[in-house]
């Protein structure tokens, strides 16, 4: 019977979620009549809503769009189109993946909400089970609408299940107000999650995401998504409401060490959501390749055809032997921090613990989050490997850095230990508690409460080893205080898939990126319209003319 149920589950997902235009899936009720008769079976359907997350966040092009095409990081490689804004409706880059996977997630969540409703009506599940399962589906749907609106701005919005009867109508939906979409999702999240709206009992436990060990989205993810949407909508009260609930759950930021921030540290207590990956030789392999674009260059050798390839016998990374990184990693042209990031915000001798483990002249690692790397503790490649013992480990400057005023590499926050070829098995930190605290700081500033603003801002500064700011430090000037928040977001959330979205919602993406990102290929391509990525032309065509890219046409 167990085997039969597994087969039925696979068939159910295959029939429920075939691909079509706009990634709407047409539902077949043939399998539904024989399946989804208990909470466990419904969870198998909900499981299908998670895979589009990995397709988006595991895509190196999404990282390039959200982080490299900003004021903090660059990747000056012409054919890395998203990093250099060589994007148009006919050449949409990662927009195709985000659009397809985003709407695949929305459509699957919509279907599961209807499945859960039917199962409750037929008494297959209890009312308590209905509430819990429905809350998970609602959070997943809001997650995908958050990504879609942040990437494209106004997008089609629908909450109904796609069937043969309504398929053409949904295919032909035009762009709709992103503000309205977010408002609907925020209201739904609040009504679904808050105990006072659920008869006094929370739909999902108000606990940290990874306390339960089941690795599913919970109340914390829903609260974070609601808070982020509220920031986009400039609904400061709702932002405080959502993020304030997270403060009740997670407590003091000082409880969470900076050494947990790197992507190689999995399912950490501060994390609100991580996109998980794994690499098991001869076993399960769910990987991406972001580490291949964020690690110091490996020593290259030349084969008989004079083609540069990685030296598979050594673990030499830009002049330092680092055994932990292994001898099989394939490293491409690495993204680098802009001068604004490493000269202004995080100098090599900065007291900020986030700047890098070996960045301030100390001989020992400082226990930071590893944003940048000027040097590293390893071995001299010219010494025999037999002498590589922990007692002989030393701190070396990377060859291309070698001095204080030279562009550092991205730090160990992004490196994958013992990476096999380009298979990055790190977990990508998508949402962290520190981001919610910085959202609270911004919301309180917009409400004119400088005291509360600084209270939350100083939480992240204090954990990073910096002194508290006071109103006198910024002269009571709201613009200067907002700039402090922006800079703190840059340092705390560096490389966590948020910078472009933040700059866009602040209305300064084009100005800040053109001011600080000097990559020649980006300078040649960047236009104000690139604040949002274009809807791919094939999707515009599939909409029967309902969709458009007017900003790109201008």
Plain-language structure description:
The chain is mainly alpha-helical and 554 residues long. It has 20 helices and 14 strands. The strands form seven sheets. Strands 1-9 form a two-stranded antiparallel ribbon. A two-stranded antiparallel ribbon has the order 2-14. It has a two-stranded antiparallel ribbon with strand order 3-4. It starts with a helix and ends with a helix. Residues 1-21 and 301-306 have low confidence and may be disordered.
Total helical segments: 20
- How many β-strand runs? 14
CATH topology of one domain: Serine Threonine Protein Phosphatase 5, Tetratricopeptide repeat
Radius of gyration: 24 Å
Tell me the distance between the termini. 60 Å
Q: Mind telling me the CATH class of one domain?
A: Mainly Alpha
Ordered list of secondary-structure elements with their pairings:
Layout: H1 2-16, H2 29-32, H3 39-47, H4 51-57, H5 60-68, E1 73-74, H6 95-121, H7 127-152, H8 167-171, H9 178-193, H10 219-232, H11 236-250, E2 271-275, E3 278-279, E4 285-286, E5 300-302, E6 308-310, E7 316-317, E8 320-321, E9 336-337, H12 339-345, E10 372-373, E11 375-378, E12 394-397, E13 409-410, E14 428-432, H13 433-446, H14 450-463, H15 478-492, H16 499-506, H17 509-516, H18 520-525, H19 537-542, H20 550-553
């Amino acid at each position: 019977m167990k085997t039969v149920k597994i087969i039925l589950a696979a068939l159910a997902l295959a029939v429920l979620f075939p691909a079509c235009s706009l990634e709407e899936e047409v539902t077949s009720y043939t399998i539904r009549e024989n399946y989804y008769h208990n909470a466990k079976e419904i969870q198998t359907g909900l499981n299908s809503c998670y895979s589009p997350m990995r397709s988006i966040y595991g895509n190196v092009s999404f990282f390039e769009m959200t982080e490299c095409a900003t004021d903090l990081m660059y990747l000056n490689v012409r054919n890395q189109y998203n990093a250099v804004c060589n994007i148009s409706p006919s050449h949409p880059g990662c927009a195709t993946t985000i659009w397809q996977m985003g709407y695949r997630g929305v459509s699957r969540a919509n279907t599961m909400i209807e499945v859960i409703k039917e199962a409750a009506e037929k008494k297959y599940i209890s009312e308590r089970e209905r509430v819990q399962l429905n809350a998970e589906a609602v959070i997943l749907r809001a997650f995908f609408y958050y990504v879609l609106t942040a990437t494209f701005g106004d997008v089609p919005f629908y909450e109904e299940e796609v069937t043969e009867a309504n398929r053409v109508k949904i295919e032909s939906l035009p762009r709709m107000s992103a503000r309205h979409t977010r408002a609907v999702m925020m209201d739904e999240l609040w009504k679904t999650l808050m105990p006072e709206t659920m008869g006094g009992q929370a739909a999902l436990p108000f606990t940290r995401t990874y306390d339960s060990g089941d690795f599913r989205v919970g109340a914390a993810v829903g609260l974070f998504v609601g808070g982020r949407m509220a920031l986009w909508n400039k609904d400061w009260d709702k932002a405080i409401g959502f993020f304030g609930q997270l403060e009740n759950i997670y407590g003091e930021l000082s409880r969470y060490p900076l050494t947990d921030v790197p992507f190689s540290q999995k399912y950490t207590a501060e994390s609100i959501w991580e996109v998980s990956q794994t690499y098991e030789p001869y076993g399960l392999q769910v990987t991406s390749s972001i580490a291949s674009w964020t690690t110091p260059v490996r020593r290259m050798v030349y084969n008989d055809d004079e083609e540069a390839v990685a030296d598979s016998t050594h673990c030499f990374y830009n002049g330092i032997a680092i055994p932990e990184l292994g001898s099989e990693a394939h490293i491409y042209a690495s993204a680098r921090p802009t001068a604004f990031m490493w000269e202004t915000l995080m100098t090599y001798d900065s007291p900020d613990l986030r700047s890098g483990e070996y960045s301030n002249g100390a001989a020992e690692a400082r226990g930071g989050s590893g944003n940048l790397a000027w040097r590293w503790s390893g071995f001299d490649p010219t010494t025999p490997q037999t002498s590589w013992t922990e007692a002989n480990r030393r701190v070396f400057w990377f060859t291309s850095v070698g001095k204080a005023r030279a562009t550092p590499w991205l730090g160990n926050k992004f490196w994958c230990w013992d990476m096999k070829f380009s298979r990055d098995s790190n977990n990508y930190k998508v949402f962290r508690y520190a981001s919610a605290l910085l959202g609270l700081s911004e919301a309180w500033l917009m409400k004119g409460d400088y005291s509360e603003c600084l209270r939350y801002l100083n939480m992240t500064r204090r954990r990073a080893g910096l002194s508290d700011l006071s109103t006198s430090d910024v002269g009571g000037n709201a613009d200067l205080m907002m700039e402090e928040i922006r800079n703190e977001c840059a340092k705390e959330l560096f490389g966590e898939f948020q910078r472009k979205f933040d700059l866009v919602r602040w209305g300064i993406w084009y100005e800040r990126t053109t001011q600080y990102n000097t990559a020649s290929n980006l300078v040649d391509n960047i236009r104000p319209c690139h604040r949002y990525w274009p809807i791919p032309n094939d999707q515009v065509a599939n909409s029967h003319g309902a969709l458009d890219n007017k900003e790109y046409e201008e």
